[in-house]
Write a structure and sequence with these properties.
7 helices; four-stranded mixed sheet; alpha+beta
């Protein structure tokens, strides 16, 4: 079933609101969601060239608009394989460096089959990064540094996320994400 771009963005926004913010996986996200400073963009083309062009466009948008704090490049077609997706993440990070954006932006990753190193696919902690669609998250490094420095226990965030997801359990974490796809 082909979904419209609007539906995919709506589902992604629901995931950000209900899972990322709702579970407090990123304690910095709520402010930006409320400020409406998150840009959502789709790239339906699966070619690496097209995706890098879309990333370049997002870098330009962020350069030109300081009110846009962060951007999500949603990749609803292709990249079903997490391993293949990780290759794209690596390519995107190299592209960021090549374009002289290292230290300005960074790429974070979300994928429906996200798997932390050393975990198994049924570990509920993976759901802290399991999104409805593969996506690349572009963050402003200066902003990220400021919020991390201001947070009293930023180093504890990943462990708290693991504990939260583990306490919720695999079934509940699956339901949370699935509810975003309605």
């Amino acid at each position: 079933m082909d979904l419209s771009n609007e539906k995919i963005i709506t589902q992604t926004k629901k995931w950000i609101t209900d899972v990322v913010v709702g579970c407090n996986f990123c304690p910095f996200a709520a402010k930006e969601v409320k400020r409406n400073s998150v840009r959502y963009e789709l790239c339906n083309n699966v070619s690496t060239k097209a995706i890098l062009e879309a990333l370049s466009g997002l870098f330009s948008v962020l350069d030109a608009d300081e009110q846009t704090e962060t951007a999500l490049l949603i990749l609803p077609n292709g990249f079903d394989s997490f391993t293949g997706y990780l290759q794209l993440v690596e390519t995107s990070e190299k592209f960021l460096e090549k374009e002289d954006y290292e230290g300005i932006y960074q790429v974070a990753s979300f994928h429906p089959q996200y798997l932390f190193a050393g975990s198994n696919e049924n570990d509920p902690a993976n759901y802290t990064n399991r999104s409805p669609y593969p996506m690349l998250h572009i963050l402003r490094e200066d902003s990220l540094t400021k919020v991390i420095d201001a947070h009293p226990n930023a180093d504890d965030i990943p462990q708290k996320n693991i504990e939260y997801a583990t306490a919720k359990g695999l079934s509940q974490m699956k339901l949370l994400r699935s509810a975003c796809l309605i």
